[in-house]
Amino acid sequence: MKGLVLVLLLLAGPWGPLGAEPYLQAKGGYVFSFPKDHQPHRGYKTEWWYYTGHLSGPEVRYGFQFTIFKIERENGTAFLFHCALTEPQGFRFDEKLQREFPGLAGERDGGIWVEDNGLKIEGNRHRLVSHCQGANLELELSHARAPVVHGEEGLSPKGENPTNTTHYYSVVDLSGTAVLESIGQRRELKAQVWMDHEFGSNFLEPNQKGWDWITLNLDSGDQMMLFRIRQEPGPDFYWGTYIPKTGPTRTYRRFTLVPQGSWESRKSGVLYPAGFVVQAPEGTLALTPWLKDQELRTPLAGMIYFEGAVEVQGQWQGAAVKGLGYLEMTGYAGPIQARF
């Protein structure tokens, strides 16, 4: 879901409307196969590998985002890197954009790279290397649970139009170690990470202005991926996946995301919700950002959006719960569809 940021890129040269040939379309009946599907899928207009997570050490914690996007257009392929780091003293972010070229951007040594930022997946092990505005981060991660496929029949819908879909899965239990070098300090940290991988060629519809996307990790062991796409006129489009501690994963739509208060960025002037409450038959969860300012202003992608770590607290299935999550908010700086 979060990788939709990438379709805002304007590479030099013309291309057709969304869904125009020769791009491949996400179609029902797609069967994921791992580790093959961790690798790039050529022929789709947009693809992304999106990691968000929480790093912890003695009396310190961080949130981070690491993303590589692949953009295919009629005149060539480019790779975009976005990173962000939520740290005790503030928030930093960075981006890199390169056309695909050996040694500069694209596939290399079994991994995917943009300059010196990259990821490599071997079996159930993920290695990330990120250089984010002076902060260097390396992660060694592994997972035990099989990847979680979102949607139905291999399709994740993004609206009522049946062609507005992607192929989308997540690895929800990545954990391991991180080494962070920042402000002259080197820290060895524990890491809990969520990875998204999504690819397709059709995204927002004309009346869809932006989205709010969250992942939730509750101390009960339950996890969720939830999003709403804001539509004018409404109603908004809601979709999600419920990943219980025990039992089968299922599509989950019986929820709403209710904005709480507002926060205005001094740097961009954009007004965002200050948080959200998830309301569902199972209970109510309040989502509070670690920092108010976790806003990325990315000139290469041409977009302003919020991507940040959140605290989770509330009642769920009759018990008090806490947890951590990640929240993305887009379209508050202006309609997203206008940039396609």
TrEMBL record:
AttH domain boundaries: 46-201
UniProt cross-references to InterPro entries, sorted A to Z: AttH-like_dom_sf (IPR023374), AttH_dom (IPR010791)
Pfam hit, one: Lipocalin_9
PANTHER family noted in UniProt: BLL1000 PROTEIN, HYDROLASE
Name assigned to this protein: AttH domain-containing protein
Species annotation: Candidatus Lambdaproteobacteria bacterium RIFOXYD2_FULL_56_26
